[in-house]
Write the structure tokens for this entry.
Amino acid sequence: MQLNYKKLHPDAKVPTYAHVTDAAMDLYTVEDFSLEPGERKSVPTGLAFAIPAGYVGLIWDKSGVSHKRGIKCLGGVIDSGYRGEVFLGVVNVGTQTQQFAKGDKVSQMLIQKVEQPELLEVAELDATDRGEGAFGSTGHN
């Protein structure tokens, strides 16, 4: 598979896979910024992608950034038809201001195949062991 990208900013850093076995590519900020506790921001990457039809780009946390710094990714779905700049939605759920410099890792993107099922309204759904059991229904906290 080939993933075409376009640099929209001269300082945009090309996504990388830190290890050959990594599932997702690291995405980097194209600007310096800080995040106060509770603050959220759309972080520019300076990149646009041509994700092939039948695939999607899913934006996820970087575990080190989230666990060590309290920066939570707000997720994102980059559809195959989108050709604009990819922005990374983040929020600081920690207690300290966090600083990022141009070129720092912020989030990661996983390219995944997608299915578009035919939607069919039915009068009843099939029965399962879980049934309508919602949050906490498995007995685990």
